[in-house]
User: What shape does this take?
Amino acid sequence: MIAINESIETISFPEAEYKAIQERINNGKENSTTRVAYEFGKYKLNSIYKTPWEDYIIITKVQELYKIQEHPHYDYLTEGQRNEIFEYSEKLNKPYEFIKFKKYIMENINIKIVEKNDLDNLFELNILFKNNTTKKDMEIIFNQNNKEIICIAYFENIAVGYCTGLIIESICYKNKRMDIETLFVKEEYRQKGIGKKLIQFIEKEALLRNINHFHINTNTNNCITIKFYEKMNYKNTGELLLDKTINKE
Assistant: This one.
């Protein structure tokens, strides 16, 4: 089971400006945009948004203005841009916004293989994911388990997510594979690239063990999760997972 959240809003830009904006923010420079009419007040200071090309930006300044001549970049605006601002703000006696932003990078993310001193943090994350393993059972399985790779992500010493991969080995198959069983990131840290980093980390760990084939089981209706993995070059094979539980009498 996978928990991926699409809660971060996408900020819109004219498609013709994509390349120029990407170049500036990728070089560490701030960029700006002007918002009028229904987009006024939509984007908040210090908030994070996804771009149409799937970078993340953070709003660094929001300035409310009324007169077109007050625009900080007035001399660089095209006639069409000036007319649009005038028509939707000054002419209607309504404000417009000058917004500055820069690329947002989640720094200080440390991903590591789970060790015994990580188990308390792993247990708390597992509860948030609504798995029902007890702490005692987790400790027992951890000490006996050599067929599972478990990694955990920390942001400034706070445990924010984890991923587990089960190594599958059979006498009927020549090569081993990994089944990625769990990927979870705390809600407030989602859509910041941590899930992707966890998957990349566990893939590298598998490669070190000469495992290069991976399976992932997810709900066929979970379009967000499927899209997430497809962007990481996983393919939908159309296989169906059947599940059964036998209760002891």
